[in-house]
Write a structure and sequence with these properties.
The complex is a heterodimer of chains A (624) and B (73).
Chain A (H helix, E strand, L loop, with lengths): L1 E8 L3 H11 L3 E3 L8 E2 L4 H23 L14 H51 L6 E8 L6 H13 L4 E6 L5 E8 L3 H10 L15 H53 L3 E3 L3 E8 L4 H12 L4 E4 L11 E2 L11 H5 L12 H16 L2 H17 L5 H23 L6 H6 L12 H27 L4 H24 L8 H19 L2 H15 L1 H22 L4 H35 L9 E2 L15
Parallel strand pairs in A: 10-11
Antiparallel strand pairs in A: 1-8, 1-9, 2-8, 3-7, 4-6, 5-6, 7-8
Helix pairs in contact in A: 1-7, 2-3, 2-6, 3-6, 4-5, 9-11, 9-17, 9-18, 10-11, 13-14, 13-16, 13-17, 14-15, 16-18, 17-18
Chain B lengths: L1 H37 L4 H9 L2 H17 L3
The chains are: A alpha+beta (624), B mainly alpha (73).
Amino acid sequence: MVKVRILGPSPRLTEVLRVVQDVGILHLTPPPSRPRLEVHAPDRAELRRKRQIDRAAADCEAAITGLALGGRGETVSGASLSQLAQWARLARRARTGAESIAARRTALDEEQALLSRYRDLLSALESLLTARALVPGATAYHIVLRRDQAGSVPVLRGALHELLGGAFELLTKTLPSGETAVLLLVPKSDAPRVDRLLADTRVQEMPVPHGYGDSLEIAIPRMRERIAAIPGERDAAVKELGRLGRRDGPELRRARAAFRDELARLDALPLSGATPRAFVLEGWVPESGDPRLRSALATAFGAEVSVERVSQEQWRGEDVPVVLANPRLFRPFETITRTLPLPRYGSLDPTPYVAVFFPMFFGLMLGDAGYGFAAALLALLLHRRSQPGSRLRTIAEMLGACALFAMAFGIAFGELFGTLGRRWLGLRPLLFDRETALIPFLALAVALGVIHVVLGLILGAIGQRRSHPRAALGRGLSAVMVLLIVVALLAAVRILPAGLLTPAAVALLIAFPVLVLLEGVVGPVEFLANLGHILSYARIMALGTASVMLAVVANRLAGSMGSVLVGALFGLLFHLVNFGLGLFSPAIHALRLHYVEFFGTFYSPGGTRYQPLGHWTPDAGKPA
Amino acid sequence: MTVLWIPLSAALAIGLTALATSWAQSRIGPALAAALAEKPELTTTAVILLAIPETMVILGFVVALSILMRGGT
């Protein structure tokens, strides 16, 4: 990165920002504090303009969401004021239209939900009404009794008999839900007494839904009509939404991009400094992009606007923004690095190491060709269903790499859905059998821990060699001491010649006080922590063993069911559970091994994200 | 007697570490849930933090396996 300063006449500031935005590589910083150089302060007109554009952008977003237009973006350069005003009107109109259709759909959905609750009841009451034509001048009561109130019918009948003699009709029908629909017909003159009786017996009449008439006799046909009409009305609303989307969608997308660009330029104004006649902009550009910015400004403004490099003495390393730039193959794994605060400028980007070790650890833990193949299929599916640059696509790409490692280690361990590969295909372990060779697996896991942690210490030593040479020496010495311990242990168990034990132990005894001299008391404490971190890699073996054991149990259960079909289903279910666990647990633990054990040895967070002033895209706001 | 002590030791190795892990996670979990309610972007970090105490039970598992293998069970 290089820091550049752009100088020009004040009236040209807005146009310069427009060109800078077109180039899209300048990360603006606040202007330097100099006498007579003032930070741009927005006037009333500018604030009003910003409010208007903010509102128009919000209208656009709401309309695009309401019309379900998706995240595809457009790039617009140099929209005129009249064009912006036209787009603002379109956005407001489209938003109102989309919201009104959405409100209509919600109302129809609610009505449909309400009517569906009455559907069974309508059928029951209708059949009761048809069975017994209404007596002229009679009052009808429509009652629904809950399942636990079904015993109330005889009680009600008895009470009515006592009250009215035989002058009533009580018809009942059981609904599919277990409730009981009751139709009660009484002479109109007796209605007040029946009302009191129903209130006393705590039996409530079913209310007629609002807007369908005063009585069920009127409401039922209307409700039936509405039940039949609602799907058509809903379809019409969906079609109208689609038509609006097709008509206004492209313009709305362009409008959104233009408003966002305009807002970005307005937000950039306070990052400029101004004298009565001139403006100054400062910011960072990648060294390779510097000529491009100069050439664009020279083409647009000639000698009127000048660009100069700010000398290195005038800025501090920690102010430089950071961008992660890795080869295509490693790029998906930048997500893992980005979860933590970005590395400081000038420090090491751990992404390439993550891209190698993360899928390797994952593969070692899953370690099954069958599960690996299933994971690869899942990765392929996610890849097909995702947009380039989306989070889902990144996950698919990482899962693909992990699946390849899982298949490779699966073949090395001779595992295909546990022991099925051995039984059906005659697979044999090329490395070792994880089911029985626990000690070799543990040794492999810890050996990987040694490699990973020592690599981290070496990277830490390299990274700090200029800024903190003493600490760098300490890291390097820690790495050597870890290796000495490994040599001593291997010599003690006779894997290496026993003669190496004494020299390794003596070298350790010498190195220890040197470490204290270099790093103080913290040195030995950190060294012990690093040894603990190496042991933590035993989790690779633990999870790997658990994974293979679960697969073996699944196969055994399948074989012990008696029925082939039940056994196969049970085995499949168990393998599915194991596959789910096999995707989740190794990912979490591989992440943890990186964040805690590996990054802890060298990672220097604190970098500022590189955010150049550029054109808006749907992915803007997400990490670049 | 050894026949009894070996599986018992292995059971203690995994059981006690599992209890310790679950206790630690029970303390971390609510704190993380509260943090996530305010900052959902911390989800990945939260999952990692929750996985940290699992080291205990994983090492317990390794020790238990070693005990069982050494005892020839």
